[in-house]
Amino acid sequence: DFYFSDITSPVIWLVLGISLLLLPILGHLFPKYISFLLSMRYYAGTWGYSLWLFKDDSLRKIDENITKTSKALMTQLLYVYDKKIAEAALTKIMAFRMMHLPGRLLHDLLPKTVDNLDDYTWVDGEFVAGEIIGWNFGDGHLHHEPVLESIQKRCNFKSEELRVIMVESPIFYNQKMEWRIYDAKDGLIEKGMTSTRDLQKIYPWGGEAQSP
Fold first, then answer.
1. Measured in whole angstroms, how far is the alpha carbon of residue 83 from the centre of its chain?
2. d(CA 170, CA 148)
3. Stated pTM of the model
């Protein structure tokens, strides 16, 4: 048998206190600054995420200007499928994301981000992180501002060629999520806060949910 009282090392107590108590508390109160992994949030859509929108064929700049282990996922899929099927495969994750309340915020943010969605290719931030830095693990902080700035330095996107929506985890005490919209070249376009309580009125596929 082993009990917490058997631990005599102050170093172990310090590590346990930070990892099991301090980081989860701070992560729930200030999700913008601490990964949801360290915050020990339950895995139900309550993590930060991002959506990257590339205009026309601007996605090609990633392959042309950044050294990485493989080509873009869309490029890889086009070896096997036509463009329509490849796009459908990559956007399945968006359907998964919108099944959770935080993802439904995209219905409000997309019209603020671009004028015509048909001009853009949607790429989930997890795919961007996996391709560019080689790892994602579902953590939005791996494909937020620092990654966007690094990509822009190498690819030099023009205005409106790349727009990115970034959303943080809900804050514990008020369930509000911070969101930001960026243009790769022009910087921050708009930011705000939205409560998950408001998103309960929206269907995953858009439109206002009706009370039974």
1. 24
2. 22
3. 0.89
